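Input structure tokens:
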């Protein structure tokens, strides 16, 4: 049994899975319910309008989106900036272009210009 401080309120609690206490989990669940209800009634609202209409802080709404706890299907105006370039995105931390670029950079065996370092031939001894 692990004892931890809640990331949100600082209270000690028995950590089971998440890094927030049961009271903060309940509050987050209530916030998600309020956001979803607001978006059902106002599908064209942006994050600021949702924040004002529900009382849920902007940063918390963005965190829900980044964590994948709030999925958007019919809400085109619910965008926030990509962590890398600032381009508007609707899910995760990176926009589609930055995600592709980072994946390409992390792919083993590729040079920065996109060409294979080893095109399948062994070097001669």
């Amino acid at each position: 049994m692990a004892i931890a401080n809640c990331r949100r309120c600082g209270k000690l609690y028995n950590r089971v899975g998440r890094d927030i206490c049961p009271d903060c989990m309940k509050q987050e669940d209530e916030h998600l319910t309020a956001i979803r209800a607001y978006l059902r009634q106002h599908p064209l609202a942006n994050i600021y309008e949702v924040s004002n209409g529900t009382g849920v802080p902007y940063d918390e709404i963005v965190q829900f989106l980044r964590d994948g706890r709030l999925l958007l299907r019919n809400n085109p105006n619910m965008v926030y900036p990509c962590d890398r370039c600032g381009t508007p995105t609707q899910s995760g931390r990176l926009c589609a272009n930055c995600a592709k670029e980072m994946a390409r950079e992390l792919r083993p065996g590729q040079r920065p210009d996109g060409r294979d370092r080893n095109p399948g031939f062994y070097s001669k001894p």
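The longest helix spans residues 22-41. The mean pLDDT is 87.
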